[in-house]
Amino acid sequence: EAAVTQSPRNKVAVTGGKVTLSCNQTNNHNNMYWYRQDTGHGLRLIHYSYGAGSTEKGDIPDGYKASRPSQENFSLILELATPSQTSVYFCASGRGDNYAEQFFGPGTRLTVL
Amino acid sequence: GDSVTQTEGQVALSEEDFLTIHCNYSASGYPALFWYVQYPGEGPQFLFRASRDKEKGSSRGFEATYDKGTTSFHLRKASVQESDSAVYYCALAVNTNKVVFGTGTRLQVLP
Fold first, then answer.
1. So what's the pLDDT on residue B96?
2. CA-wise closest residue to A1 among A32, A36, A29, A27
3. Signed CA dihedral, A29, B43, A67, A20: sign only
């Protein structure tokens, strides 16, 4: 069974609307991450978390909020979606030490019209 | 800040060709280096890592050697197959919580 799952897998939103992307992991990892993937930019870190109740800004946090209500769940929130946020979003989990790999979910394709 | 540079955006090869994808890094500390692979419609998945100078990481026939002198971690495979077609990401981690990814290299292997 997949250890990192994301929902929805596809989402179409309108400009100015609120969007919530959800992520669940069964790896019991402390750390979770949200990335966006765009051609020419690769994977860019938006927000991350050390554990339940914590959220930290990544490299491109503007326009995004995050919530980590439990060890298993990590959400990405777009309060006022804009067309520039059209992208593929990936959630990942990891142990948190320097040498540990990250485990990625299957991604969510978001289109903001 | 810390960064990873992959010079090839796309690589096209025939089956059994030799593969090299170049990766150079810039980091303030002593990073761990990674390669990830992403198949169509999936999330990236860990391929292998190296954490110290001259260490070789390898998996599934792919390998790379950590070179602190040239700040490089080039991915190589002696004989590629069509099933290796994917996007390959080089990445580094300097502290415990953040990984910096390169822009990715799309590999297309023609039968």
1. 60
2. A27
3. negative
Provide the 8-state DSSP code for B103.
-
Strands A4-7 and B56-59: unpaired
Residue A88's nearest CA partner among A48, A35, A41 is A35
Closest-CA residue in chain B for A99? B32
List strand residue ranges (DSSP E) for A50-97, in order: 56-57, 65-67, 73-78, 87-94
* Chain-chain contact of A45 with B99 (C-beta, under 8 angstroms): yes
Strand partners, B13: B109
d(CA A95, CA A108) in angstroms, rounded, equals 23
Taking contacts as CB-CB distances below 8 angstroms, the residues of chain A near B32 are 98-99
Minimum CA–CA partner of A38 in chain B: B103
Retrieve residue B86's tokens: 């994917």
Query: Digits of tens for pLDDT over chain B (111 positions)?
Result: 889 999 999 999 999 999 999 999 999 888 999 999 999 999 999 999 999 999 999 999 999 999 999 999 999 999 999 999 999 999 999 876 688 999 999 999 999
Touching check for A57 and chain B: CB below 8 Å?
no
3-class secondary structure per residue, B52-63: CCCCEEEECCEE
Q: Inform me whether the pLDDT recorded for A71 exceeds 70.
A: yes
- The gap from C-alpha A46 to its chain's centroid, in whole angstroms, comes to 7
The first and second tokens of residue B111, run together, are 């039968």
Of A62, A7, A4, which Cα lies nearest the Cα of A33? A4
